[in-house]
Amino acid sequence: MSSVVSVESAMVSAQQVFGEISPQFARLTEEVLFGDVWQQGELSLRDRSLITVAALVALGRTGQLPFHYQLAQTHGVDSAQLSALITHLAFYAGWPAAASAFEAMQPVMGSVCDDESKEETASCL
Hints:
Blueprint: H1 3-18, H2 23-34, H3 45-59, H4 65-74, H5 79-93, H6 95-109, H7 115-120
Helix pairs in contact: 1-2, 3-4, 3-5, 4-6, 5-6
């Protein structure tokens, strides 16, 4: 789980998604956002992922969530932690925002319950 791999993945993704439409936006995403901001040492990559997912959920920006769910997983955040984050945000950002975030999470992360915890937990995604 190297930070270099995560940054390189983000850069490739930026080129694929924005490169043809807006080369400048793709370049800024690569060089400034992931090349500089995400690399500053005051916050860990894990913390930055949690903060980013929280902001996207609160703002209802579900289109960006699948990428950031995967990036968070690369940075050591598991499905159960993302589920807890979104549930917590439901009370601050609104129930519909949380419900939409869970809908975006399902295809990317699957269920937060593994085979063992399904019997112990009443609610699984």
